Amino acid sequence: MEGIVAKIAQISDCHFSAITKPKFVTGCTAVLEDIAENPVDLLVVSGDIADDGCVEAYREIAELVQRILPSTPVVWVPGNHDDPDVMERELKQPLVREWQFPGWKLAFLNSAVPRKVWGRIGKPQLSSFGQWLSTTADHVGVFVHHPPLPVGTAWIDPQRLRDADELAEILSAHAQVKWLANGHVHQEKQDIFAGVDWYCTPATSRQFMAGAQDFALDKSLRPGYRRFSLHANGSYDTAVHRVGVID
Known about the structure:
Elements: E1 4-11, H1 22-37, E2 42-46, H2 55-68, E3 74-77, H3 84-91, E4 98-101, E5 104-108, H4 123-134, E6 139-143, H5 164-172, E7 177-182, E8 189-193, E9 196-200, E10 224-231, E11 236-242
Parallel strand pairs: 1-2, 2-3, 5-6, 6-7, 7-9
Antiparallel strand pairs: 1-10, 4-5, 8-9, 10-11
Helix pairs in contact: 2-3
């Protein structure tokens, strides 16, 4: 399509481990192979890359991504199941804070809190993010692991960002921010947060039942991921793609 300056794929919640469940590997492989069929300019892995933060998990997924998408740049964003220190060391990449395309910038926020399932970005990072936004006139997309608002699934909703109000204050003051996309909830959702388009992206591993009071899997849904196409005029397209086998 004319005017596209970049294509991005967001995958999330892969949950690899020392002995990764075969269906998690199968799901992630199917997603990556689908991305390879329509190549992107950037792959964003938005947290819970590992299930337990172990060395083997990061090595396994790094090898898988390298095998299927050998020439695609990757940004790894930590989630609550990740160990950022192990992640940086094994993936051989420090945490990336921003990425640039013509007329567009992407921001990556770390919401992982050690030994906590809920998320918090924290005052220092929020302050830096706000200052960064004040210096750019480019269109902006934001990736983070935790959702800023409840998604309507009772057992997940307490796990959202604890400082979402502070994030909302920053976003609402910067009209160039076009969207915020997260993982964590293992389900698809679209809404508005602080005047910004808000997207939840499904998992490559297993899918959670939307609206459930207690933990429940939705075994009718296949693994999924999200694509973004960024346009020079500041508009964008996004859609969830589901591939592979049903859980």
